[in-house]
Amino acid sequence: xxxxxxxxxxxxxxxxxxxxxxxxxxxxxxxxxxxxxxxxxxxxxxxxxxxxxxxxxxxxxxxxxxxxxxxxxxxxxxxxxxxxxxxxxxxxxxxxxxxxxxxxxxxxxxxxxxxxxxxxxxxxxxxxxxxxxxxxxxxxxxxxxxxxxxxxxxxxxxxxxxxxxxxxxxxxxxxxx
Length: 177
What we know:
Layout: E1 2-10, H1 15-26, E2 31-36, E3 40-42, E4 53-62, H2 66-79, E5 94-100, E6 105-106, E7 111-112, H3 121-131, H4 143-149, E8 156-158, H5 161-164
Antiparallel strand pairs: 1-4, 1-5, 2-4, 3-4, 3-8, 6-7
């Protein structure tokens, strides 16, 4: 099985539950969940006028090839209500392939490693929790190096166990710094 790191994000409905459902859906489609990071409440960074997100990263194992994996993840997103209305806008679930072994894919439909990996704290913080010394297959920088060097200063706040028990009820009105 290939080692793959996936990013999960949600800011509509019950974000924690949406992510839990997405992770659970992996089990029936040839994807073995090995480890899941903590969940984090994260500030929107590109399209800012929307509710805050919940994000996490999972280390998984799969025999699916990268394009097969992407299509499988997109089917899970659609099954959980994902509609692509506004680019970078609100979503019930978003699942991205961050890293797939040391494979590099650059096509019109798929980029591995994920093109935003080194510029997004909402991905780097949970990825660091799982694999701080993992190296980017192109730049050879570690996750720790990328996290320390990213210009992104958006808020990424680890959720406690009590927050994971049910609906987070974000209003999106949190102040940003």
